[in-house]
Amino acid sequence: MNSEQLFEQAKKYTPGGVHSPVRSFKGLHTTPRFMKSAKGAFITDEENNEYIDFCMSFGPLILGHRDEQVAAKVHEAVDRGWSYGAAEKYSVDLASYIVERIPFIEQIRFMNSGTEAVMTAIRLARGATGKNKIIKFNGCYHGHMDQMLIKAGSGLAGEGEASSKGVTPSTAHDTVVCELGNLEQVRQVCDQSDDIAAIFIEPLPANNGLLPQTEAFLQGLRKICDEKGIILVFDEVISGFRMSFGGMSQVLGIDPDIVTYGKVIGGGFPVGAVAGKKKIMELLAPVGGVYQAGTLSANPVAMVAGLETLKKLDDKFYQDLQKNSDNIVAIFNEWLQSREDLKDFQIVQRGSLFWFLPGQDIPSDALHIPANLQERFKELFKVCLAKGVYLSPNGYEIAFVSSAHDENLQKELRARLWS
Ligand SMILES: *Cc1c(COP(=O)(O)O)cnc(C)c1O
Known about the structure:
Layout: H1 3-13, E1 35-39, E2 42-45, E3 50-53, H2 68-80, H3 90-101, E4 107-111, H4 114-129, E5 133-138, E6 150-152, E7 160-162, H5 169-173, E8 175-179, H6 183-192, E9 196-201, H7 215-228, E10 231-235, H8 247-252, E11 258-261, E12 272-276, H9 278-281, H10 300-310, H11 315-337, E13 345-350, E14 353-358, H12 373-386, E15 389-390, E16 399-400, H13 407-417
Parallel strand pairs: 3-15, 5-8, 5-9, 9-10, 10-11
Antiparallel strand pairs: 1-2, 2-3, 4-12, 6-7, 11-12, 13-14, 14-16
Helix pairs in contact: 2-10, 3-10, 6-7, 11-13
This protein binds pyridoxal-5'-phosphate (PLP).
Residues 113-115, 118, 141-143, 202, 207, 235, 237-238, 262, 272 line the site of pyridoxal-5'-phosphate.
């Protein structure tokens, strides 16, 4: 069966034919490619078309697809057994590897996704402070739990409104949505309410385009949290182990009280994590009274894959990754400028993350993202797909570079784009 036939089948058995909405290619005037295998920077669909992959599973695959050393360790792990529901050594290895290398964390708890990690961080922050409300920012994504599916309400610095059906008004009542970069607004909210438990932010917002924030803004959040006894949560599910081993926290030299990880931490297997100082982390059960659990948490195969991936991330790795990324962005820029139909695009890049943006002005909050983004992206996506270059299938999603996007791959990219 080809991709189109599979999509028809899938839609019969699954809502929209997919298990996560963005995979459906909605609004792109084409059906999703069904992928069957991948290696390095390449991904292959059911029709045997081989694409250069810039989606990279939306971030986890920092080593590219099917790294051989990771694969070998995963095979060994599977040969021992793949779930114990008991204490095991593999999570100790991964936990100690991470905690020993990131100065501001003393303990970590593993779970299965970024969503679970943020959900736990919310409960932990409330448990630690005895307060109820949380602040999040318009344009940051923190997973699909009720408390985060909230958009700004009508009033100034007002209460949130559900952005999804099925979220109760009382849940929305406890999440306040602020604008990225607007420290005054955050200060106002925190001055008006003594019930703010935590401020959640992606220190490099990368789920609604790429919206880099100033260091002054992020330092300002740290300061407000210190003054008011509010927990600062950095959601580093994308930026963790990618912008540096210690993520944006390390790049900026700002210590959050709680950090959440996902994506790279499992190397492509389902792992999420909450980490922080022992004083906060030991509020979690079984030591403390904040409940959290998981049948498949710290799955031994995923732990081994995560550890083997993280072991490769030394200084040299990040230097090479930056070089790959700079070269790839330069190639795309040159190509975009060479084409009448795509000349209006520019690229926003931070490290190994980049975003195709139509128009001249680079937005730093969600309000200033051009309204024609998705319309323009549709064109770009179509042209790239036809040339064997696979982008994340939505204009608001960013592109990911891995160590497999090396010099040879860059030559291949150039050949494909100008073909
Ligand atoms: C992907 C992501 C999540 C959600 O992680 P899942 O594993 O998809 O549940 C949360 N926060 C950020 C910043 C993310 O990028």
